[in-house]
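Design review, sub-item: ligand-bound model
Attendees: FS, YL, KQ
YL presented the inputs for the zinc ion complex:
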Amino acid sequence: MKAAVMRGARDIRTEVVPDPVLEPHGVIIKVKACGVCGSDLHVYKRDEQGTIFGHEFSGDVVEIGSQVKGIVTGMRVTAVGFKPCGKCFWCVQGKGYRCSHMALLGYQFPGAMAEYVHIPHAVLGRTVFTVPAELSYEDAASVEPLSISYFSVNRAQPKEDEVAAVLGLGVIGLYAIQVLKALGVSKIVASGRRGARLKAARACGADVVIDAAKEDALAAAMAATAGMGVNTVMECAGMQATFDQSIAMTRGGGKIMLVGIYEQPLAWDPLTAISKNLALVGCLGGNFPGAIDLLRNGKADAKHLITHRFTLEQASEAFRTQLHDPGAIKVMFKME
Ligand SMILES: [Zn+2]
Ligand SMILES: [Zn+2]
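KQ shared the predicted structure:
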């Protein structure tokens, strides 16, 4: 089959590779759509060999392992892929889902930027999810990133009369705006950079959009709340500056949801967080059924975010676009 394969730093090539091999607990899916993720770009910049990316995808089930229940061929699905190590404390107790050395689809084993992908441990409703007819394959390939935003916003339990801020307008931040809107939060302040993303933030439902490249984001957020500050910050940027802004713009008793991945350790003085009784909450997880429901009900929409589409043969161009094109938000592979 054809697949997009890493061949060194910033070098992705479309090659012919062996077809995936079906395992008794696995399924093989013919891929229809697959998104390029920000996490893929981190690896893309490193000198690695052989990685086949792709964990935001959808397709049709074509082969089913002998031990799999409830999944039939032809099912339109999206899925999460992981392989427990089988040796750690949790695996030995039969709790592989808590494995501390989990191998991930699209990183440690081949992902969905290929004609076919193998999902080990296929369990309907747990790792494999049926896609309702209302959702396109592109929508279904957007469930994974949307599920992260859904999970993170849900942890904050925002109320309708509150003000929420979203810092960092990558895909997770933009979907967080959609989820906040879907939950009826009355005022959403969004701060980010790049024209395309600021425009998308408005389309996603942000009431106040701050261009952090030109404005003082903290001053603008305080002005938007008559000096009160916001109730909840979704910190989706993962940088020192946005962390500091979060602490400063959250009103007493408010919450800061830490969603963005920090590449550098933080320097901070906890005194402000203590004196304002702030809650800092780490968020790492996804809710696939919740995300699928939002898309089906039209409360979330992938179309504001998908800016570029490529075939598998154009893999190299697809990655260059996601990394360098300032207009790129989500780059999507579409397989015939
Ligand atoms: Zn991702
Ligand atoms: Zn393990």
